[in-house]
Amino acid sequence: MQEIVYHANYEHENSYWWFIARNEILKQVVKSFCDLNQNKNLLDVGCGTGGFASTMLSECNVIGIDTSQIALDYSKKRGLTNLHNTLLKDFDKSIYNKIDVITFLDVIEHIEDDEAVVKEAYNLLDSGSYLIASVPAYQWLWSKHDEIHMHYRRYSKREFEKVFKNAGFKVMYSSYFNSILFFPAALMRFIEKITQKDNKKDSPIDEVPNFINKLFTFIFRLEKKWIPKVKIPFGLSIVLVVKKI
Fold first, then answer.
1. Where are the alpha helices (DSSP H) in the chain?
2. What pLDDT does residue 7 have?
3. 36-72 as b/e: b if 16+ CB within 10 A
C-alpha cells in the first residue's frame, strides 16, 4: 500500500465507522469458530497498523507479519510485540511451534498471486486449524479508492471461495457483509464515476461529519446480530471461514 494509507489507518482505526464495526464483526467471527486462549497462536497476515490484531490481545497470543516497517512500528504503538517484517512464505513457524488461526483481513486483494499465498497458508497450518479472511466485494464497484490502496482486484463470493477450495481448504462459512449501506454506497460510486468526481480523489479515507460517522457505525454494527449466524446475499465486503481438514 502507499505510505499515506498506513498513516491514515493508524489515525482513524479507533474512531472511523468502517474500522470500528468491521473489526468488531470479524472478531466475533473468529471467536465463534476458534477455541481461543492465551496458549493459542493467531497469525495476522498483513497486520498493517495493528487495528484488528490489537483487539485480539486479550483472547490469544497474537503474531503479526507485514512487509511494511512503517505498519509494524504503528502496531508496536498498539501494544503488539510479536511482530515480523516478512512475507508469509518466509515466516518461521518454528518460533511459535504451531499456528492455530490465520487471519487475512482485507489483505488478499493486495496480492497479485492470491492462489499462491493461500496455498502457503494452507501448508503452514496443521489439520483442524482455521483461516478467516475478508476482502472487498464486486469488481464493478472498482474505484479510485482501490487504486490508492493498491488493490489488484475485488471479488464475488464464489470467486473468493474458489481460491481457498483450490488450495485444499474446506469452506465452513462465507457471507457478504456491510450490506445495509450497500445500496447508498453503490449509488454514490455510480454518481462519482458519471461526474468523474472519483478521479479527483487522493485520500485513502472518505472522511464524514461526526454525526454521520456515528450513524454509519451504528448501522454497520447491526450486522453483528446476523454474522456468522446467517449468510447475507450481498454487501460491500466478503468474510470467509475455512478449515484445514
1. 3-12, 17-33, 69-77, 114-124, 144-148, 157-167, 182-195, 210-221
2. 93
3. beeebbbbbbbbbbbbbbbbbbebbbbbbbbebebbb
Q: In what order do the strands lie in the sheet with 61-66?
A: 82-85, 61-66, 41-45, 101-105, 130-136, 237-243, 170-177
**pLDDT tens digits, one per residue of 148-161:** 999 999 999 999 99
Cell numbers at residue 184, please? Answer: 447508498
| Average pLDDT rounded to a whole number, residues 88-103 | 95
Q: What is the CATH number of domain 3-243?
A: 3.40.50.150
The answer to whether the CB of 125 falls within 8 A of the CB of 140 is no
State the residue for C-alpha cell 462465507.
174
- Mean per-residue pLDDT, 28-35: 98
H helix runs in 34-143, sequence order = 69-77, 114-124
CA atoms of 222 and 4, how far apart (whole Å):
30
Question: Do β-strands 41-45 and 82-85 pair in parallel, antiparallel, or remain unpaired?
Answer: unpaired
Torsion of CA 93, 71, 40, 99, to 10 degrees: -30
- Model pLDDT for residues 161-194, shown as the tens digit of each residue: 999 999 999 999 999 999 999 999 999 888 887 8
Own/partner contacts of 84-91, CB < 8 Å, gap of 24 or more, are 88/45, 88/117, 88/120, 88/121, 88/124, 89/117, 89/120, 91/43, 91/65, 91/124
Instruction: Supply the DSSP string of 205-229, one letter for each residue.
Output: S----HHHHHHHHHHHHGGGGTTTT
Write down the pLDDT at residue 56. 98
User: Quick count: other Cβ atoms within 10 Å of Cβ 212?
Assistant: 11
Domain boundary assignment for the chain: 3-243
